[in-house]
Amino acid sequence: MHKKLLRSFLLAMSIFMVSGCGIIDMIYLPPAEDTAQEIFEAANDAMSEKNYVRAVELYNKLRDTYPFSPYTIDAELSLGDAYFLDEEYELATESYKDFESLHPRHEAIPYVLYQTGMSLMKQFRSVDRATTELQEAYDYFNRLHQMYPDSPYAKGAEEHMLTCRKLMAEHELYIADVFWHMKKYGPAWHRYEFIMKNFQDVPEVAEHAKEKSLVAYHNYKEEQAKETRQKRQGSWRDWFKWL
């Protein structure tokens, strides 16, 4: 009888100890880390829900936690997309550039070049601002068009190249017109001439610049002649005063 009670007691204690360890583990041990696949799928779900801030957070977590996971490369590419869709174009540009630098032979490089160009072009605000981003965007679209002519993105890149050139020409025209309205016809004439020579692929802007150039040159020469007459008249007045 005592032996049976002892066995029952020991069995109960064993069960308690086992379950107790499980409870202790639940209380004191950290929760299991999400796998790379789980993080990637959660990030993609956030993208589908247009929660781009959360998607960025998860793609970065995957990249930092599992740098050698097969999901990490896709996460790095999707990170740029998340920034782009969230209209964080500078961060998108940086992400796409990083991807190209890390994976220059990846099959998605034509897409990356296209998206880099788009991210740069989206940073352009108006013709009265600098065109640094536009020129860089043009260079990326041109690289895509030259290196991957059979890519499905090549045609779009060619169209955006024309858009970039048109906006750059309009920027130069804006500066020339500012000089014109300030009646600084010399600088205006030089700007119009620059447009004529460097933006022949934007015929409507080049033609307008040609027309304004002729008038600006005429006004500029008249100003020079007027200044020359005034100097001569001034020298004669000074001579008579000396007498």
Architecture overview:
It comes from Desulfovibrio intestinalis. Keywords: Cell outer membrane, Membrane, Signal, TPR repeat, Transmembrane, Transmembrane helix. This is Outer membrane protein assembly factor BamD. TPR repeats lie at residues 73-106. The protein has a domain at 34-99: Alpha Horseshoe (Serine Threonine Protein Phosphatase 5, Tetratricopeptide repeat). Helices cover 80% and strands 0% of the residues. The chain has helices at 2-28, 36-48, 52-65, 72-85, 89-102, 109-122, 132-147, 154-181, 185-198, 203-242. Helix 8 (154-181) packs antiparallel against helix 9 (185-198). The chain is elongated and about 90 Å long.
Distance between the termini: 148 Å
The coarse silhouette is: elongated
**Rg computed from alpha carbons, rounded to a whole number of angstroms:** 35 Å
Name the structural class: mainly alpha
- Write the CATH architecture name of the domain at 34-99: Alpha Horseshoe
Largest sheet: none
The count of DSSP E runs of length 2 or more, i.e. the number of strands, is 0
Percent of residues in beta strands: under 5%
H/E element order: HHHHHHHHHH
Number of continuous helical runs: 10
Unreliable segments (pLDDT under 50, ≥5 consecutive)?
Answer: 23-27
User: Which CATH class of the domain at 34-99 is shown?
Assistant: Mainly Alpha
